[in-house]
Structures are given as structure tokens and as C-alpha cells.
């Protein structure tokens, strides 16, 4: 059954390459709504032991990949904020001390949320780390990235809009079992979907963090804020946007001279990753605008050939859901993306999958009428991958006809991997949840825009 489906999809894809327009996949899936896993599910179980650390997660802790932020929650009492860590096969345990915080949201009170940055790590090294004390201590591990450099191969996973349904669990399982072996997740926003519960029941922030611990305690997830992170509820007195998100998830924004945790950059191996915020001001003169204007010229493609941008709301989206929501930010920043030859933009928000050809729409100046996307080999490929499987279900109402720039679109849950081989080539593949772990429903070779600006489109112009 699974094999038959894969062969069928491959046949359709092959046919699409031969005709002139992009492809709307005819893959048929059941349209059932996604259901959140109940609170007593195995994936939400707290670890045993008094005050045992839970919800352990890591992310990059500096600009170049020599630091890691370790975060976790204790429930009974603050406990220790110390992380002990040691390189594989070494006996000396290093110690770093973090801090904890706590927040209230309406009538919810969080546990003790610890954040500790461990620094001066060696590249390409497996480290073990331990949090908690005594018999409740827990040990995890991660591998640091290679030193930043132009030909350092590296594989990123790409996940968005995950939530905590049975489908979310399937997406995460497929990512873990994907033979492409993602080393770091580029997460394009909308984490827990706790805000779908009455009073934004923040218990669902805790369950989400326990659910994803099995991946994010062992490899960093690079965070992007989505609309479900805003948690703005004046009706119940909650007027500080992003309160749960910023208390729980830390990012190294100061290392890229950003002034807020919603936009920042990191270098990792041969990639330069810029994270933007669809839900922070981005117009001219705003802090995000000024930061991005200063940031893009700093990217040195001889050092980091691959320029990747993450944001939540997509600019090129031919789904009727969230149609044109990304348009105002596109108008502000798209000329820069073309000028600086961004390789790929990953976005979420729309609960489906879509990949564009390289297009731009930057000629319009209000009076010249030039407002259609055109093929542009200096432009990024835009990928919408808000298909993690959250409670809101699939966005399965596509605009017709499919626009020319849209290379592939399908309303299915899944995840992708972006596997950088060297400064010229990166292999990208999207995996739908209904297929076997190794099946690629959509894939292509990316040619780097700086080093190898050869047409890599997959549909004839
Ligand atoms: C650590 O030890 C294991 C088992 O002896 C070995 O397979 C591995 O290569 C060692 N790693 C390093 C970095 O020396
Ligand atoms: C918070 O308030 C809601 C509505 O009054 C109630 O249903 C819920 O049980 C309360 N939760 C806590 C932790 O008090
Ligand atoms: C979630 O997926 C894991 C790994 O496949 C499995 O062990 C677990 O039972 C699943 N839990 C639920 C509630 O689906
Ligand atoms: C941040 O700004 C400082 C001071 O201007 C500068 O030395 C540093 O290189 C900048 N860092 C980055 C990553 O741009
Ligand atoms: C860019 O990176 C290369 C390789 O690391 C380095 O040799 C060069 O000096 C850098 N250029 C600038 C302007 O920093
Ligand atoms: C699909 O979207 C169009 C445009 O927004 C709308 O008119 C139509 O009713 C939608 N169809 C379904 C089945 O939701
Ligand atoms: C870069 O990787 C691609 C794909 O693996 C390969 O075909 C190409 O020869 C590599 N380039 C260099 C210079 O090694
Ligand atoms: Fe969203």
C-alpha cells in the first residue's frame, strides 16, 4: 500500500517535470481533523524522581556554534541550575551555572524554568551533559557542529507548526527515523498550540516540551516565533506578547547584535541562518528593519556559502489559508533577498506543503504596473512547511489555477531535510507522513546562489 502510493506520487512528479506548469499533488489522504494526544499519553509522561528535570531542550548558544543553551523545568522546587558536561571519552566534568525564572499566566503558574549557556565547546565533538541532582539527575548528549567554513557538510531538518496531536507524533517519529539524519532542526514557528485551549491553558506548553524532549534534548532546534507564540489575551489580563514563549525558549540574539529574541542569526557549519519575526514590527526605521539592513552585508559567502532565512508567515503561498498575510513583509524585504542572493526561505503558518521556483516580484513602484512574479535566478526558493500536524488540521483549499511560480504543492503532513554537501550543492527532500521513512515525496538539488548560480528549477519556464 505505502509502496504503491510512493510509486504513484513519483509518476505524477515525473509527469509534472515534462509539462510547463507546477504540480498540485493528487495524493489522496483522509481529511480527518487532527486530535491532540490526551494528557495521560506516553509522550507527556514526566520523568520519575523527586524534582527531576523535565522538558529538556537545547539550542545554539552563540554566533558560531561553540556554545549551547540548555533549558529545563523543575516542578517541586527550584533545585540546581548547574549543568555538568564532558566530552566523550573524557573524565573531567565541567560545570556551568545558569539561572531560573518562573511566570504566571492568568491562573497558571509555571514550574522553575532553568536556562544555562555552556561555552567554549570543541567543534565536531560529542558531549554528554547532566542536569538535576542525586537519583533524579538525567544525562543527555549532543554533537557540536564542525567549525564554520565553506565546505563543511551539514544536514538540517525542517519542521513547522508541530503542535501535539497524534499526527505531530508521527511527524516527529518520521524525522527521527529519516535515514538522512538531520543534525539540527530549523523550526519555523508555532510550537505548542496551547492557545487553542481555554485561557491558553499553559499546561499544554509543558506537555509540548515533554513531547519533543526526545529530539530537542539531543540536537538543537533553531527557534522562530509564530502567531501561536504571541499569547496576547487582554480579556484575561494577559497583555504582554510572547510571555510563555520568551520565558521558556531562549535564543542567542545578542550574539548577532539583535535587540530582541524574535530576530537574530547564527552560523552553523557552512550555513548562515537568519531568523525573522512576522509578528514584530518590520517596517522602515523599526529595530528589525535596521538590524536586517546591517545584517545582510555581514554575510560572507566565502565563509558561509549557504544563506537560509526562516520566518513564520510565507511570502509566496498559493493556498487560500493565510492568503497574502506575508505580503507586507515581502514588499519591505524582498529586494534585499534578491540583492544578497538568499538560497532558500523556509516558512510555516499554512498547514500544507509548497515549494516555489526561483521568483521575485520587486519591479513594482506603484505607477509602472509591473506587479507579477518573474523568474529570477538571484531569488530564493520559497518553501512553506507548516505541515507538522497540529490540532487545526490541514489547509486543503488551494487557489486555482496553480500559479506558474509554484513548483509543487500538497496538503499533507510531513517534514523536510536540507543536506548541504559542499559550497555548491545541497540536497533537499520533503517527506510526507503517509509514506515510509525513506520515501521522498518532493526533492531536488539546490545549487548555491553565490558559488554555482545555475538554473536549478524543476518545471520548465
Ligand atoms: C570513544 O570511545 C568509543 C568506545 O571505545 C569509541 O568508539 C570512540 O571512537 C571514542 N571517541 C573518541 C572521540 O575518541
Ligand atoms: C483556571 O480557571 C479556569 C476557569 O475559571 C478553570 O477551569 C481552571 O480549572 C483554573 N485552573 C487553575 C489551575 O486554577
Ligand atoms: C508517539 O510515537 C512514539 C514513537 O513512535 C510511540 O512510541 C508512542 O507510543 C506514540 N504515542 C502516541 C500517544 O501516539
Ligand atoms: C556586534 O557589534 C559589535 C560592536 O559593534 C561588533 O564588534 C561585533 O562584531 C558585532 N557582532 C556581529 C555578530 O555582528
Ligand atoms: C570572508 O571569509 C573568508 C574565509 O573565511 C576570509 O578569508 C575573508 O577574509 C572574509 N572576508 C571578510 C571581508 O571578512
Ligand atoms: C476555498 O476558498 C475559497 C476562497 O477563499 C472559498 O470561496 C471557498 O468557499 C473555499 N472552499 C472550501 C471548501 O472551503
Ligand atoms: C559538491 O557536491 C556535489 C554533490 O555531492 C558533487 O557532485 C560535486 O562534485 C561536489 N563538488 C566538489 C567541488 O567537490
Ligand atoms: Fe501560524
UniProtKB/TrEMBL annotation:
Q: Which reaction does it catalyse?
A: a phosphate monoester + H2O = an alcohol + phosphate
Pfam families under this entry?
Answer: Metallophos (PF00149), Metallophos_C (PF14008), Pur_ac_phosph_N (PF16656)
Q: Which UniProt keywords apply?
A: Glycoprotein, Hydrolase, Iron, Metal-binding, Signal, Zinc
Q: Which cofactor does it need?
A: Zn(2+); Cu(2+); Fe cation; Mn(2+)
InterPro entries reported in the protein's UniProt record: Calcineurin-like_PHP, FN3_dom, Metallo-depent_PP-like, MPP_PAP, PAPs-like, PAPs_C, PAPs_N, Purple_acid_Pase-like_N
- Residue ranges annotated as transmembrane are none
* Full protein name: Purple acid phosphatase
Recorded source organism is Salvia splendens (Scarlet sage)
Its top-level enzyme class, in one word, is hydrolase
Q: Which domain of life is it from?
A: Eukaryota
Amino acid at each position: 500500500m505505502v509502496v504503491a502510493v510512493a510509486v504513484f506520487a513519483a509518476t505524477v512528479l515525473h509527469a509534472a517535470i515534462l509539462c510547463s506548469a507546477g504540480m498540485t499533488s493528487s495524493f489522496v489522504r483522509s481529511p480527518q481533523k487532527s486530535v491532540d494526544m490526551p494528557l495521560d499519553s506516553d509522550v507527556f509522561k514526566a520523568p520519575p524522581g523527586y524534582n527531576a528535570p523535565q522538558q529538556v531542550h537545547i539550542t545554539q548558544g552563540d554566533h558560531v556554534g561553540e556554545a549551547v543553551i540548555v533549558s529545563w523545568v523543575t516542578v517541586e522546587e527550584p533545585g540546581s541550575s548547574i549543568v555538568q558536561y564532558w566530552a566523550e571519552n573524557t573524565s573531567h566534568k565541567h560545570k556551568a551555572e545558569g539561572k531560573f525564572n518562573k511566570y504566571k499566566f492568568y491562573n497558571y503558574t509555571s514550574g522553575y524554568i532553568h536556562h544555562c549557556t555552556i561555552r567554549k565547546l570543541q567543534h565536531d565533538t560529542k558531549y554528554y551533559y547532566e542536569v538535576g541532582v542525586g537519583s533524579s539527575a538525567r544525562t543527555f548528549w549532543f554533537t557540536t557542529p564542525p567549525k564554520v567554513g565553506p565546505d563543511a557538510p551539514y544536514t538540517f531538518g525542517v519542521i513547522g507548526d508541530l503542535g501535539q496531536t497524534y499526527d505531530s507524533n508521527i511527524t516527529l517519529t518520521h524525522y527521527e527515523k529519516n535515514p538522512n539524519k538531520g543534525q539540527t532542526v530549523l523550526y519555523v514557528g508555532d510550537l505548542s498550540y496551547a492557545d487553542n485551549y481555554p485561557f491558553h491553558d499553559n499546561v499544554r506548553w509543558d506537555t509540548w516540551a515533554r513531547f519533543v524532549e526526545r529530539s530537542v534534548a539531543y540536537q538543537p532546534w533553531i527557534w522562530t516565533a509564530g502567531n501561536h507564540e504571541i499569547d496576547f489575551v487582554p480579556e484575561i489580563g494577559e497583555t504582554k506578547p510572547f510571555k510563555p514563549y520568551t520565558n521558556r525558549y531562549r535564543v542567542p540574539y545578542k550574539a548577532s547584535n539583535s535587540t530582541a529574541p524574535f530576530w537574530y542569526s547564527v552560523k552553523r557549519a557552512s550555513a548562515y541562518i537568519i531568523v525573522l519575526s512576522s509578528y514584530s514590527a518590520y517596517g522602515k526605521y523599526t529595530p528589525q528593519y535596521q538590524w536586517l539592513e546591517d545584517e545582510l552585508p555581514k554575510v560572507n559567502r566565502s565563509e558561509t556559502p549557504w544563506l537560509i532565512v526562516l520566518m513564520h508567515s510565507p511570502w509566496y503561498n498559493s493556498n487560500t489559508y493565510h492568503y497574502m498575510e506575508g505580503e507586507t513583509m515581502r514588499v519591505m524585504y524582498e529586494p534585499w533577498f534578491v540583492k544578497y542572493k538568499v538560497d532558500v526561505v523556509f516558512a510555516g503558518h499554512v498547514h500544507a506543503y509548497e515549494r516555489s521556483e526561483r521568483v521575485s516580484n520587486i519591479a513594482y513602484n506603484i505607477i509602472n504596473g509591473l506587479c507579477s512574479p518573474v523568474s529570477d535566478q538571484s531569488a530564493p526558493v520559497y518553501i512553506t512547511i507548516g505541515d507538522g500536524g497540529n490540532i487545526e488540521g490541514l489547509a486543503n483549499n488551494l487557489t486555482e489555477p496553480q500559479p506558474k511560480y509554484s513548483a509543487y504543492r500538497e496538503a499533507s503532513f510531513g517534514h523536510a531535510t536540507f543536506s548541504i554537501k559542499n559550497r555548491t550543492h545541497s540536497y533537499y527532500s520533503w517527506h510526507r507522513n503517509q509514506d515510509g521513512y525513506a520515501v521522498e515525496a518532493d526533492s531536488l538539488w539546490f545549487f548555491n546562489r553565490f558559488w554555482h548560480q545555475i538554473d536549478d528549477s524543476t518545471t520548465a519556464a
